[in-house]
Amino acid sequence: MSKRRVMLIDDEAAIRSTLKQSIDWDKFNMEVVGEADSGSEAINVIDGLLPDLLFVDIKMPFLNGVEFSKIIAKRYKHIKILILTAYSDFNYARECIEISNVIGYLLKPIDKEEIKNYLRTVKFEQVPEVSVDFSDEDTDLHVRIRKYIEENYANTYLNVGAIAEQFGYNASYISSYYKKETGISLSDEIFRYRMEQAVRYKKSGLKMYLVAQKVGIADPYYFSKCFKKYTGSNFKTYEVK
């Protein structure tokens, strides 16, 4: 049976480190496949990580845990969410109670035994196998998807899940289809197009935080990482050609 894939989303590196190191994930047939320090970053990387379980901090910059969890519940029905919250923020966290994907709350400081109890409930559940069968009706879908990216790249919430929702398919199907038709993954296509526009805005002399907003990445710190990955240079030192 495939391992459950876990993603940690918290703006405190110490909390993410504690979660990774204090739990014997193998014992629960799980593995930590990635992390993010903001909801904004998580939206952009989640499609490449394919997690089954998320640990989500309720208070994060740029996109808080409540709004993030609502987006996940709408786009990814199978992903389970555990909310991380301080006692003083618990009433705020209860806004998540009606979000179907949320399976529980963990108060900080984290109680290791409480985490284990939740993990046991998630462990007998099977990881669904996805079968993709492309139909002839989808022959021009990749062209429409590309156009949609070009028209919506500035939307902070744009990712594979959003595109799947827009075109009426599930995320696994739309991602596999796009890779088959174009040779590039859909998440990479979104990333590439955003960075192309970022370079264009850089040439116009805009400051980094404004460029980040214009290409749909609300978190300037995450944007700076993306820009360096794409260009090989920091935003400030990038030479405009």
How would you explain this protein's 3D organization?
This protein is α/β, with parallel strands linked by helices and about 240 residues long. The protein has two domains: about 5-125, Rossmann fold, CATH 3.40.50; about 135-230, Arc Repressor Mutant, subunit A, CATH 1.10.10. It contains eleven helices and five strands, in the order E-H-E-H-E-H-E-H-E-H-H-H-H-H-H-H. It has a five-stranded parallel beta sheet with strand order 2-1-3-4-5, sandwiched between helices. Strand 4, helix 4 (about 90-95) and strand 5 form a beta-alpha-beta unit. Helix 7 (about 160-165) crosses helix 8 and helix 9 (about 185-205) packs across helix 11 (about 220-230). The longest helix has 18 residues, at about 185-205. It is globular, with a radius of gyration of 19 Å. The protein starts with a strand and ends in a 10-residue tail after the last helix. The mean pLDDT is about 90.
